[in-house]
Amino acid sequence: MSTDQTTAPLPAPHGVAAADLAREAEQLLSSLIRFNTVNPPGNEAPAQEYLHAHLSAAGFECELLGAEPGRPNLLARLKGKAPGPTLCYLGHVDTVLANATEWQHDPWSGEIIDGYLWGRGAIDMKSQVAAEIAAGAALARSGWRPASGELLIAAVVDEETGGELGAQWITREHPDKSRCDLLINEGGGAFFDYSGRRCYGVCCAEKGVFRFVVTTEGRAAHASLPALGDNALLKMAPVLERFAARQPGYTLCDESRAFLAALGEDPADPASAIQRLRLQSPVLASVFEPMFGITFSPTRIRASEKINVIPSHAELKVDCRVPPGSGEEDVLAAIADVLGELGTTAPGAGTAAVGDRGYGIEFTERIAGNRSPAASGLMAAIATWVDEHDPGAHAVPVVLPGFTDSRHYRDAFPECVAYGFFPQRHQSLLDASPLIHGADERIDVRDLAFAAQFFCDIAVGTLG
Ligand SMILES: [Zn+2]
Fold first, then answer.
1. What pTM value is reported for the model?
2. How far is the CA of 158 from the centre of ligand 1 (A)?
3. How many other C-beta atoms can be found within 10 angstroms of the C-beta atom of residue 296?
4. Which residue ranges form the domains of the chain, and what is each CATH number?
């Protein structure tokens, strides 16, 4: 893992040889994948101790802080010569599970085969952790220190089950140690083509979660005498049909408007953009369309506990995602929009009250979306870097349909500008997306090097 500049065969940005940086990122990622950190249970301690040793040796001040034994979070800082902003590179080291029988190669081998580094976490997101740490360590060993401010590397646990012991815990319990002004985390960066334009998504907002239950009521009876009962389950049939027919109309937020503008589209006309996108790539259209509004996905239904009893009560659970800025009133309006005549219920109903039209709505989760300004110095720096390293390509603000640990940082530090970005110029968004939480997760090693260079350049560009 030498970064000896005198023997480096390639140009050396900031005193860091590109080939050495690439090799260091590969070695870090291979090692990280070999630590099984499937969450639950996580068991991230050995991986975190490995990263702690690597960054300490490079000159970082490191600390392991955990809510529970065996699950420490790593905070590593490289202090500058004068006061200034804290730039934080955030990553989680836990992964979802992998079923080895579905994979072409062992999910915990960390091997490089045909130019790809394989394993669970190769995209989500040990790759980003490895690139961030390789960049930080190489810079530190080269003697670089921020002219002002500091570089903070945070490797956290427990993201895949919500971050309770990871980002949420560390920002709540150790705000002074985890506070940052600028944050780069997962959530964007793999390139996509739009009408001949090469684009890199920078995630600057995440949708919120407003899950709810639709309830119907009837009258119980013996199932052998159907006409004596009033079957609550059958009353769900029209509800399901309407959910199946369509999603609510578009509700754009500032960030989705900025996305359309960056694609060269009219922000007031998302339907045309989606139509064009669908002709080009139906998958890309399906990936981007949720940015433009509230979505409903009915996922579970439950009625009678017994096969021979006509249900007097039925429940349909709906996973609902809302753009940042939208809330319960907007969801109720969207329910009315989709269910039409069926869609009347008392606004703000907190309990399963059955409305005039025969069903009730009960919210079970209300988490608003989160965001950072799409226009900022950090966004400008990312856009410049993208254009320099993939000439003519654009950095494009995107809204993530799901959420990441960024929400905990935005909650804890409202002034923090947080983006999701891990640049990939060889493995496209379409190539990478199915591998996340899927079989055969792997990363093009050229992208790992590309990203490591990005994290090197942005640290130096931002902190001096
Ligand atoms: Zn992740």
1. 0.91
2. 10
3. 22
4. 18-187+404-463 (3.40.630.10), 208-251+293-363 (3.30.70.360)
